[in-house]
Design brief:
- Keywords: Disulfide bond, Protease inhibitor, Serine protease inhibitor.
- By secondary structure, the protein is of the alpha+beta class.
- Among the domains are: 40 residues, Wheat Germ Agglutinin (Isolectin 2), domain 1, CATH 3.30.60.30; 86 residues, Wheat Germ Agglutinin (Isolectin 2), domain 1; 41 residues, 2-Layer Sandwich (Wheat Germ Agglutinin (Isolectin 2), domain 1), CATH 3.30.60.
- A hairpin with a 5-residue loop joins strand 6 and strand 7.
- The longest helix has 15 residues.
Length: 272
């Protein structure tokens, strides 16, 4: 999670005697937690004193704050992470810019830094300070809250090009990962939700059935942003009729109701 913190913890661990309980690390060798021996549970359950002295434990990827260590040890399969409530990242707005700490580590946004700061305090009893003048933050920009979305090469929608460049900066500095803008507008997976566009099935102009309007809108979006086809048949798909592509429903294509539904679908189509 935090390379500097993990290194510091590894150094501390190297000079301490081996613990009697088992330690758990992730695939990178970073500290994850300690599996404590479980307390015996009698016929009336495991009894713990009503003392509020919270500890943070995890079962896999799920972390949870327990009232005290006894309660944690009475729960099967839980790893003790650290004393105190679990560090949790707040939900930052999508426009929030990356920030850096005094050790030149970059974080996706201030909320991620606050979680790291909490982790540093819980594990190492050490204060982590923010310093966005660090070299790792040299490529970070201050962005407006303008909604002019772009879609990146991994299929993620960013509110505008400035926010994308900040994400690009973060991924390059933190993970040596490179992303590019795939196209302007939202990524096709984000243009609609099936629950927002009705559940009418329909047949498009190339004979494909769609379970609902959202599925059709996404297919239209993907066609618009796909590389130009080598053949001459490059016209956009349209709605042939509502109902699945079958001979039983083809009579709908000339009905007045079908024409009304098509006009409503065209009116409500999202911008790509």
């Amino acid at each position: 999670m935090i390379y500097a913190l993990v290194l510091s913890f590894a150094l501390l661990e190297s000079v301490q005697p081996a613990p009697s309980h088992q330690q758990y690390t992730d695939k990178y060798g970073y500290f994850k937690g300690q599996r404590l021996p479980q307390l015996p549970i009698g016929s009336d359950g495991c009894y713990c004193p009503p003392i509020i002295r919270p500890v943070c434990g995890s079962t896999g990827a799920i972390v949870y704050t327990y009232m005290n260590e006894c309660v944690l040890r009475c729960t099967e399969g839980v790893d003790l992470l650290y004393d105190g409530p679990c560090c949790a990242s707040s939900v930052c707005l999508p426009y929030a810019a990356p920030v850096c700490d005094s050790e030149n580590m970059i974080y996706r946004n201030p909320c991620a830094f606050e979680e790291a700061q909490c982790f540093s305090h819980r594990i190492l009893s050490r204060h982590l300070s923010m310093d966005s003048s660090s070299p790792a933050c040299a490529c970070v920009e201050s962005c407006t809250e303008e909604w002019s979305p772009v879609c990146d090469s991994t299929g993620k929608t960013h509110p505008n090009a400035c926010v994308f460049r900040n994400a690009q900066c973060f991924l390059k500095e933190r993970n040596q990962e490179q992303i590019e803008i795939a196209h302007e507008g939202q990524c096709c997976a984000d243009v609609c939700q099936s629950t927002d566009s009705g559940s009418f099935s329909l047949c498009d102009s190339v004979g494909r059935s769609h379970s609902d309007l959202c599925s059709y809108y996404r297919a239209r979006c993907e066609q618009r942003h796909a590389p130009p086809p080598s053949s001459s048949s490059s016209s956009s798909i349209t709605i042939a009729h509502f109902g699945p592509c079958s001979s039983l429903s083809s009579h709908l294509s000339n009905s007045y109701l079908n024409s009304l539904l098509i006009s409503f679908a065209a009116r409500d189509e999202p911008k790509y």
